[in-house]
Prior knowledge:
Elements: H1 3-24, H2 29-32, H3 49-52, E1 64-67, E2 70-73, H4 89-94, E3 106-108, E4 111-113, E5 118-121, E6 124-128, E7 134-136, H5 145-153, E8 158-160, H6 171-177, H7 186-189, E9 193-194, E10 208-209, H8 210-213, H9 230-246, H10 257-263, H11 276-285, E11 312-316, E12 319-322, E13 343-345, H12 349-359, E14 362-369, E15 375-380, E16 396-410, E17 416-423, E18 435-439, E19 451-453
Parallel strand pairs: 9-13, 15-18
Antiparallel strand pairs: 1-2, 3-4, 5-6, 6-7, 8-15, 10-16, 11-12, 13-19, 14-16, 14-19, 16-17, 17-18
Helix pairs in contact: 9-10
Region (Disordered): 300-335
GO biological process, one term: proteolysis
Main location: secreted
Amino acid sequence: MTEDMRALLCLWLVAQVAQVALSSRVRTRRELSPGLYEHGVYDAGGSYCQRGDVCCHGRDDGCTVPYHDTLCYCDLFCNRTVSDCCPDFWEYCLGIPAPFPKAPGCARAGRNYPTGATYRENCNLCTCGAGGQWQCEDHACLMDGELIDAVNRGNYGWRAANYSQFWGMTLEDGIRHRLGTFRPSPTVMNMNEMHMNMDSNEVLPRHFDAAAKWPGMIHEPLDQGNCAGSWAFSTAAVASDRISIHSMGHMTPALSPQNLLSCDTRNQRGCSGGRLDGAWWYLRRRGVVTDECYPFTSQQSQPAAPPCMMHSRSTGRGKRQATARCPNPQTHSNEIYQSTPAYRLSSSEKEIMKELLENGPVQAILEVHEDFFMYQSGIYRHTPVAEGKGPKHQRHGTHSVKITGWGEEQLPDGQTQKYWTAANSWGTAWGEGGHFRIARGVNECEVETFVVGVWGRVSMEDMPHK
């Protein structure tokens, strides 16, 4: 064999080995992937290579930028048949138009978003429209920065705050889910009022706080969450305090709103609202257990209330005994607490004060307006701050609360501002530790229109023996 033939044979063998090696090389995951644009271009107008300030020569598998839920590439190798280039590779790295139509998208905070993208602005959902403009809903929000500022700038006698638990809710949501007392029917509103015996010259103290007179017997406010059940919360709160006071502190139950919400179903709607007269009927005829025994579980309004998990039977003389265990398995005390029939007080400021002073906290309906949700401190009066924003920003609904005392403050102009102190049911982070003060003697927000007292059903065996 000649030298030339030997050389040709060697070259052929090298070529064959190279071909085998090439054909046997394992292809990388990048080469096997289907590319980024099988299902269309996501965020065609987005800034990726430009934002990362990367453009790489040849092939560089590290030349990547996060893209949607994967990576896109800014190297020359990306621009092949199966493209994995970032959407702005062609314009930013090559200086030529992209090979697909560039959707307009919508800009926000320095970023571009594709058509159909959404974000929330407080209680309103904003969607990126086909024309490249954000289209936002126009609901009135429960927390409105403009109204909060207007209250705090004005000379209204109280301060407003932005509450995180209300952020993102519409005003309609607040009225529907954070109140929950049906306005008393004409028949109930015409109940005979019980009048307090008062001398015409009787002087009542300028300040009164039930918790100071009856220490350990006045219970802290609870939080009804997004359950429109103030009818049950205010009833349980007043009954808890009254039973504690009338048993001289021998019984201090924190009664269960959930027991009322789930079991008092006659003409009541649980977390969608209820009547005060129906709640007091149930407390007198059936009774309820403590909040520890039957804890609150209905933080959200539900179409159907959870089934009643507490039942009782009569033991004679109007008293009742539980026939079910506590829904809370950690507690065994399932004693039933009852009240006597509730009575309506006169709307007279002095008579309500005397009832509070002698017998303890009372229940009152309250007409809640849009600005009340933002109350933080001071003596509340409904303000006109929402009037300039249009009718949908002015809403009100009926609520019920527990009045626990009264007082008065000297105003800068020398006048005296009288107030009631009341416990709400929106938790202790709202208002003044869960309480609020409201103008007294002027029926502010109808707080003196329908005021109810009650006696706890307390027998001699319940009383402390000396």
